[in-house]
Automatic annotation (TrEMBL):
Transmembrane segments: none annotated. HAMAP family: DNA_primase_DnaG. CDD domains: TOPRIM_DnaG_primases. Keywords: Coiled coil, DNA replication, DNA-binding, DNA-directed RNA polymerase, Magnesium, Metal-binding, Nucleotidyltransferase, Primosome, Transcription, Transferase, Zinc, Zinc-finger. The lineage of its organism: Bacteria, Candidatus Doudnaibacteriota. Contains an N-terminal zinc-binding domain, a central core domain that contains the primase activity, and a C-terminal DnaB-binding domain. Monomer. Interacts with DnaB. This is DNA primase.
Amino acid sequence: MADPIVQEIKEKIDIAEVIGEIVPLCRAGVNLKGLCPFHNEKTPSFMVSRERGLWRCFGCSEGGDIFAFLQKHEGLSFPEVLKILAEKTGVKLPERREFKKEIYDRETETREELLQINELAARFYHEALLRSKSGEVAREYLKNRGLNDATVKKWQLGFAPDDWHQLETFFVKKGFSKEKLIEAGLLVRGTGGQVYDRFRFRITFPLIDSYGRVVGFTSRTLSTDPKEGKYVNSPETAIYHKGRLLYGFYYAKKAIREKGAAIVVEGNVDVLSSHQAGVENVVASSGTALTSEQLNLISRFTKNLVFAFDTDKAGLTATRRGLELALSQGFNIQIVKLPGAKDPDELIRQDPKLWEQAITTAPNFLDFSFDLLFANIKANDKDKLRGAAKEYLAIVGLINDPIARAQEARRISQKLEVPIETILDYFKNLKKASTGVSGPTPVADRRQTKNRRSLLEERILGISLVNPALHQVLGEVLIPSDFSTVAAAADSVINKKGIAAEQLSYLEFLGEEELNRMKEDYPDEERIEKVFRGLCSQLKELSIKEQMKNLERVIAEKEVQGQAVELEELRTHFNELSNSLSLITRK
């Protein structure tokens, strides 16, 4: 690994700024804290040290530097994070061949090659749109949709020629194999074995990930042939996962943070029109139901959602599905009404101010749902009223706030002219039967990633490093061999030897936070020492129990072998350990 380069990046990067783009952080003494992105929690236990360049969650025990954070949170390889952070800090990377081979495994090489192919394809399509004679029809289409040259350039919109092999020929001339292009999703192998371009006679929309990299394409046909699918998308690949990406998110995330809300629309053109009109906190689900991964992406920047799906039946269904999932993940939701328009693009083309006004006046999802379900139902049509009420109560049942539920129960009781108790009873039965809506799958408890002993060892060493008064207690109770996962560090700390700078920094960061927590609970030094001694005793107990377990196995083996002398020594040692354990457990 090119350690000097990694170190240079760490020195130049502001870890709090990078993590702060993903996790809202607030000051906590010299450090910053927020809700951990790796497990569900209500009280912040995720700490970031700008001074040390480290992060740590005291709830699930994950931690490390900025490289570890991005690798874990974004699912990126080390070389990918290295490249992203090098670009961010202006650090020049050496040629790949100068890195150690183990950094670039086969999977990483594949991902890099697919990214390169998609980037080249985006340029090919973009140039075909701007300069080719056959691209005239595409240019005219985009002009008629009201998209200007600046938008076309910024979003790298393109044109796939009406040719079965033009893209294939372009890449083969550059030395790329057809198999790799099939893997990238740009070529398709037919049933007869023939290979051809996936996108033909289409407007192409590059799909860009959170870091501005082209990972795939969606496209709209320019053909009038009804047999042609209106939309054709890239298949899932090693770099593109449909449910994890929101169209426009890369360009919208800054505005989402600034505005404090994300507007979710259905179509790509809705996004383009809105950004062009100056409303930039807009992303698209690209015609699919919102997924947990997409909502997690938004939740890094805001918990306020505004749905602006199409007003047709499919759009209303998408609104309902997105509503259920977003509520289960704790979002505040408003729903835009599109007066006299089927989608945001149409409304914007009428007048951009109408779009801004629709967003500003968007009702919360309860008011929207109530108005929608009870619209055009006459007061004497009891059957339809009851049907609408059941649908509405199913939506209200998704709310966790009991006060809000009670308020909506009163609204329905007044609408149906029935006692509120009847509605509340219906809620109870609804809860028992379940609406069939499930919340997000709970994140696995990350406490399992490190066992009790590992956590204990790190806490003890960290605390002793930042509080010299407790170092003596450490030496009285424990010896280096009592530590397993950080044995070398323990030997260095207990015997006051040198310790690796990076490990020292991490343990001190951990120790400072642990000690601060102890001081909040126990203001006097005597009580803190007693608690720390208790932690040391816990580790001693674990160490002795492990030694006894190992001895039991060895004794059993010696008994079979009939080695009496060794057996006597082993049993004596076992009894000594047992007596030591009794002393600890009696304290």
